[in-house]
Every structure is written in C-alpha cells, then in structure tokens.
Amino acid sequence: MDLCFEDTLKMKITFGTDYGCCFVELGKTRVMAQVSCELVAPKESRPNEGIMFFNIELSPMASPTFEQGRQSELSVKLNRQLERCLRNSKCIDTESLCVVSGEKVWQIRVDVHMLNHDGNLMDAASIAAITALCHFRRPDVGIQGDEVTVYSPEERDPIPLSIYHMPISVSFSFFQQGTYLLVDPCEREERVMDGLLMIAMNKHREICSIQSSGGIMLLKEQVMRCSKIASVKVSEITELISKALENDKKARKAGGRCGFAESMPQERITALKMDETPVEMTEVTDRANDIVQKAEAPSQTVPSPVVPVPGVGQVGQGLQNTWGLEEEDEEEENDNSGEDEEVKETKMEVEQHDKEGSKQGYYISFFNIKRNVHPKTKIQSLSNDSNVMEPQVLIISPSVCFTVIFKA
C-alpha cells in the first residue's frame, strides 16, 4: 500500500524575523521553536565539542490538561525522545562549535513551545526543532591571543550550523491489538489507541531512534511496514523543509519582507479603506413611511396623582408617587394667573423673655417663592443665644425660607 503526502495531515512551515525562529502547523497542532546560543565552558569529558540542549514547554494555552510551572511525565518523555532523535543521532557537527579547546565552546539551546495540542506533538516538535536549527545562524568569533571577540551581524555575517542530515519523527497508532494502523493520530485518537510507535528517520532511510509505548506486542512485519511508510513521509517532509528554507533565503537576499506577518497574509489587514457599495433601499423606505403614517401618536396627557395623606408619599397600596409633579402644578398656576412671580415679605416682631426678665426683639422675615404662606407659620426652633447678632436663615421647604434678625 503506497502512502501519498496528501493522505497525511496538512503541514505548513513559516519563519520569524530573526534567524532560528520557526513556526510549524501540523493539522491543528501548533509548535514554535527558537534557537539561541552562548559561549560556555565545555564538558570535561568532551573538551573539543559544543553542547546541545533541548527544552520542551507544554503551555496551558495548548491544552487545559497541561500545568504551568510543573514538569509532567509527558514533557519528560518528549524531551528524552527529542534528544535521542537529534542529539544522539549526530545530525549536528558539535566539534565545529568549539572556539577554544577546553575553554570556550558554543552551547546551542533549542526551546520548543507547544501552542496548541491536537496530537502528534513529537512529530511537530522534531520538525520545528530541526528546521529552526537549519535556519539558525551563530555569530562569528575572532581570537587574538587569549581574547575572544564576538562580532555582531553588522560587522560579520553570521555562520550557519553544520548539519549532516534531518531526522524527523513519525507517529503510528494501533487499534484493536494491532489490527488497525493509523498514521498521524489526532488528540482524540490518541486517547482511545491501544499502542503508539514513534520512528525517527532521515531521507536516507536511516533509523535514528524508535520507541514503542502502550504495552502492545508488535510483530516484525508491522514494524517493517511502519518503517516503509515513515521513509515515504520523511522524504516528503524533508523536501518541504528545504523549499521553505530556500524561499526564506531568497526573500531575505532580495530585501523583501519576511517573518510571521508576511507568511500569514490572511491574518493581516491589507487595506486602510474600502469602496462604497450602493444598496437599493426604495422598498425599505416606502414600507417605513407606511408604518409611520399608520401609527398613532401616544397620548401626551399625564394624570395628576393625588396623595391622600400629608407629608412625603411612599409607593404602596392606596398611595401614588408625587415626584416631579410639583413643578408642573406651579407652571399651571403661573399660566392661569398670567402674573409674574411675587416675593412677599412679612415682618413680625417676636418677644422672648430670658431668665433674668430682659427682653430681646426678633425680626423674622418670611420669603415665599411661588407660593403664599401664612405669616403665622409655626417655627420649630430658634436660637436662644443672646450673643448671636448675625441673621440666621432657616429653610422650611425647598420653596419657603425665612430670616431671623436678632435685636438687642
């Protein structure tokens, strides 16, 4: 049975603005790989070789089952599998990363971030990691005596890594004790599968690593069949990676735009204005006019509520709300009389005897605004302080006030 590349999940590879940043879409799985480097001291056992370090981060954004800040069993398993696939397969020349034997070597760090989990995490991680390593450029260095100088990209062109081959992982899931075989299982299929087989292979049909999980017994024929399918798929993926690297190289050489924004035009605004499109609204206008003509205007008269008891009315059984009706009553009185507002002033002299029998006079002025108030309106309280010589203003209601002037 032949396997076509169209039968597997759709894959897309894009690069970032900086060297060593790669974004891989494998079906609905999203993975981003970032490569960085620094000068460190080499290991004592291998003083002439650089150091390769891999790290896979399972973000809670990718799946609710992932916990942040805690290394799960799945992340440890993926890290080990990625190290066996890339570092133990000797796909990178680590001796070329040596700057000064026994003193300074380059440490290459590959961080793989899972952005969305829909199965095939190992496949997507291996593709993103090897593609980012091929795309990465380390700074050039110069040695003068005991001094090591690291040149910026503006001073000297960065140097790519020496990569011998591209190992890529391919996953196979088995159902019903190996009766059915499925390539590129999704997240739902991984939940119900009986076993999983991961084969890391390059385009030369060299198996770099192989791992089986799930406790299922596989026959020799099944493993050979999976290896043949993996060789076909790895060849197609390697060709796609080479084309993506070549296109990015041409775009950077031509001085064109590159990066995620250029690689994903469907998620970018390409115009600042849009042409106006005429819409025929004749029928809608006629129908709206008919509705307006047939509609009846609402009544403008509002009944005046009556409060059966004096004081402030409260909403309840047998009472009506009087808020906002005072001004309407006053406007009606002004319209009927046709006269301007009058301010009436009434003065009366009040005598009060203190304890010693002395007399003090109070001149009380009533100011009635928009309403007639009887001069004998009861006063609740007055100040008995004889030393107070300043007038005091007491407000009975929002429209009635009076002034008390103390006279010795």
Automatic annotation (TrEMBL):
It comes from Sparus aurata (Gilthead sea bream). Signal peptide: none annotated. The keyword Cytoplasm applies. Residues 325-343 have a biased composition (Acidic residues). InterPro entries: ExoRNase_PH_dom1, ExoRNase_PH_dom2, ExoRNase_PH_dom2_sf, Exosome_comp_Rrp42_subfam, PNPase/RNase_PH_dom_sf, Ribosomal_Su5_D2-typ_SF, Rrp45. PANTHER family: EXOSOME COMPLEX COMPONENT RRP45, EXOSOME COMPLEX EXONUCLEASE RIBOSOMAL RNA PROCESSING PROTEIN. Pfam families: RNase_PH, RNase_PH_C. Residues 325-355 are annotated as: Disordered. One of its GO terms (molecular function) is mRNA 3'-UTR AU-rich region binding. The gene is EXOSC9. The keyword Nucleus applies. Keywords: Cytoplasm, Exosome, Nucleus, RNA-binding, rRNA processing. This is Exosome complex component RRP45. GO terms for biological process: exonucleolytic trimming to generate mature 3'-end of 5.8S rRNA from tricistronic rRNA transcript (SSU-rRNA, 5.8S rRNA, LSU-rRNA); nuclear mRNA surveillance; nuclear polyadenylation-dependent rRNA catabolic process; rRNA catabolic process; TRAMP-dependent tRNA surveillance pathway; U1 snRNA 3'-end processing; U4 snRNA 3'-end processing; U5 snRNA 3'-end processing. Belongs to the RNase PH family. One of its GO terms (cellular component) is cytoplasmic exosome (RNase complex). It is found in: Cytoplasm; Nucleus, Nucleolus. Residues 344-355 have a biased composition (Basic and acidic residues). Residues 11-139, 165-231 form the Exoribonuclease phosphorolytic domain. It comes from the Eukaryota. CDD domains: RNase_PH_RRP45.
